[in-house]
Write a structure and sequence with these properties.
The chain is mostly helical. It has 20 helices and 4 strands.
Length: 525
């Protein structure tokens, strides 16, 4: 008998054989197999393990919910701050006797600032960490938001909103952090929880407006309330949110990465855990890496223009709805093609509690969008899910070309915006799954510039051009929504269930779609 035959069988190889036999459909490991895998970890603690396998062992624990809730509070504050411009535009039009262009400027100024801040926060997060970027961003938003409340004329308000917007340029960071915190099979659920927070932010924002904006100078209390929530969320991040494990491992801090994971599940990360290190990345946050491989560069351009159109159309539909809601001639006394508003600061109508209640109900679409995004992204995949949502959004936006009652208008816009929001949420998830860790934040930030450009341009169409030709403004939005459909069809590389890439090195321990088991034996995800 040969020496090879006399050697005892390797239990780790036996585990892999059993795992392969039990999972011919590439499904999630059974409980028995997972338990056996855990016992093997205890028997062979010195065996190397990848971060993806370790994240799988950690699972989704109670402390994950704690961190996600804190990220949600951050998102709620950010969304309420962003809602300031949308809700205050009609209010300031009457109170400060603004023109249509000046009203659009009060809405767009924050997005001009976000345009400038988006790339900065992405580069900062890729070089210094997600947590530190979140802390500084929140303090910036809160402080400038509070100062804005003391502005008493147009230009001080516009300038201060611009500086507040610089901070809001990093509003995508909670999503980036959430995708890096968990294993691939939990990413969609983690981001879904953050997106639900965006829904709560819009509901709270419009509900707060119902009690503050109806009063003279009430918008000051509205802004102070939003800014206070942002600063409070900053202290929660400081006290309870660890740094991203992927960022720590990418920067060579292996023990810090393990300590961060132990916060979530200490039993899954024993002291002798031999985590496979990454070669320290020297290209963190470099813009040219976004387009360095030709295939990634083409994909980046398609995503960029799609992101612009999604944000442009999403905000535009809401602003057109507000314009029509504020003028009775466009709803109660209208037939045929939608008419152009004749309202100015001379005859403007201040919205009351009834209109703000209607807006609060309308904002339920954000919650519906988060739910639709989660379902379609899981059942259809990221790309097909986005395409489906955009098709439904366009179909329900077409009736906006004709006169509708307030109830009919609210229903069709609500459905259209729900699916538009779902497409936006799925795109956010896709961006953070597609780009590797070492440029993930700068990719999200750079792409956010295109999105912010869309929301900067949109108010000048919805709030300014609509006062010249409402049919023309509505038709323009429908045309750009159709263009977005075409771009979505051109996208490639489905990311559902695929492990995130971390570095630019060929020896990356966990390339997309594959993961290594104990002793380097490969397992399907």
């Amino acid at each position: 008998m040969s020496n090879q035959e006399s050697e005892p069988a390797d239990p780790r190889a036996a585990y892999v054989d059993k795992e392969t036999a039990n999972r011919t459909d590439h499904s999630t490991p059974s409980a028995d197999v997972s338990n056996e895998y855990g016992s093997l970890r205890e028997k062979f603690p010195d065996d190397p393990i990848t971060l993806d396998n370790l994240l799988s062992d950690v699972g989704f624990t109670c402390y994950h919910y704690v961190v996600i809730i804190i990220l949600s509070i951050v998102t709620v504050g950010d969304v309420m701050e962003a809602e300031v411009g949308i809700l205050l535009g009609p209010k300031l039009l009457c109170e400060w006797r603004l023109t249509g262009f000046q009203e659009a400027l009060t809405t767009s100024s924050v997005y001009f600032g976000a345009l400038c801040g988006a790339m900065f926060w992405g580069n900062f997060a890729d070089n210094h960490g997600r947590k530190y970027a979140l802390i500084i961003m929140l303090l910036w938003i809160g402080l400038f938001g509070m100062i804005t409340a003391f502005a008493n004329s147009l230009w001080p308000f516009v300038i201060l909103r611009f500086f507040t917007g610089i901070g809001l340029g990093g509003a995508y960071l909670p999503v980036t952090y959430a995708t890096e915190l968990v294993h691939a099979r939990y990413r969609s659920f983690a981001t879904f929880l953050v997106f639900i927070a965006a829904f709560l932010g819009t509901i709270l924002g419009s509900a707060l407006a119902m009690f503050t904006l109806v009063e003279p100078q009430g918008w000051k209390y509205y802004i102070l309330s939003c800014s206070t929530l942002v600063i409070i969320s900053c202290f929660f991040v400081i006290g309870f949110v660890p740094e991203s494990p992927r960022f720590l491992l990418m920067t060579g801090r292996q023990e810090a990465c393990l300590n961060a994971l132990r916060i979530f599940n200490p039993k899954a990360v024993p002291r002798r855990t031999n985590l496979i290190p990454m070669q320290e990345e020297t290209k963190k946050g470099r813009l040219k890496e976004l387009i360095a491989p030709k295939e990634r560069g083409v994909q980046f351009v398609i995503i960029a223009f799609s992101w612009f159109l999604i944000k442009f159309d999403g905000l535009g539909i809401i602003l057109l709805y507000f314009e029509r809601l504020q003028d009775d001639m466009l709803t109660s006394h209208c037939q045929g093609w939608v008419k152009t508003s004749t309202m100015t600061h001379e005859n403007c109508h201040q919205m009351g509690k009834g209109e703000y209640m209607q807006i609060t109900i309308f904002n339920l679409e954000v919650g519906f969008g988060a739910l639709i995004s989660f379902i379609t992204a899981e059942l259809m995949g990221r790309l097909r899910g986005m395409l489906f949502c955009q098709i439904v959004s366009v179909l329900f936006a077409i009736p906006m070309l004709v006169c509708l009652s307030e109830i009919s208008l609210t229903v069709i816009v609500m459905v259209s915006k729900s699916f538009s929001a779902a497409s936006w949420y799925t795109m956010s998830l896709y961006i953070n799954e597609y780009f590797p860790t070492y440029i993930r934040s700068v990719a999200a930030g750079t792409l956010d510039i295109f999105g912010r450009t869309g929301v900067i341009v949109s108010p000048f169409i919805a709030q300014s051009l609509s006062k010249v030709t409402m049919v023309g403004a509505t038709g323009l939005y429908l045309a750009t929504m159709l263009l977005g459909l075409v771009l979505n069809v051109l996208m490639k590389h489905e990311t559902k269930g695929v492990n995130q890439t971390d570095t630019s090195h060929a020896g990356d321990p966990h390339p997309p779609g594959k993961s290594k088991s104990l002793s380097g034996l490969k397992l399907d995800e």
